[in-house]
Amino acid sequence: MSDTIAAEYLTDALRNFRSYKKLAEEALAQTSDEDIFRLIDPDANSIAMLVKHMAGNMRSRWTDFLTTDGEKPNRHRDQEFDIDPNTTRAHVLVWL
């Protein structure tokens, strides 16, 4: 019984992740390369920064989630807001 519930949960979680990934890809497809990296003011984050940050957050949260909680020691949160000037749309899509 427990294995069945675990398998169903995993199937549902993967379906949801894939659905959210598809939504993000479709949203980015409607955005120009210029707008993905645009900062609307000096204190703002670009779409690319937000995607990179959310990817880091999810990677940290879901790594060993059954045995550990919170930030993982290998996460460098502040670096998630640094975007290399040579970053392309393809790089951002990989972060999804």
Number of domains in the coordinates? 2
Cα distance, first to last residue? 34 Å
Mean pLDDT: 93
Q: If helices are DSSP runs of H or I spanning 4 or more residues, what is the number of helices?
A: 4
The major sheet is characterized as: none
Oligomer: single chain
The coarse overall form would be flat
* Order of secondary-structure elements: HHHH
**Per DSSP, what share of the residues sits in E-state strands of 2 or more residues?**
under 5%
> Quick one: how many beta strands?
0
The unreliable regions are: none
Supply Rg: 16 Å
Please estimate the helix content.
55-70%
Secondary structure class reads mainly alpha
Structure write-up:
The chain is mostly helical. The chain has two domains: 30 residues; 65 residues, no CATH class. Helix content is 58%, strand content 0%. The chain contains four helices and no strands. The radius of gyration is 16 Å and the shape is flat.
Name the descriptors.
96 residues, flat
Summary of the model, kept short:
By secondary structure, the chain is mostly helical.
Question: What's the topology here?
Answer:
Blueprint: H1 2-29, H2 33-37, H3 47-62, H4 89-95
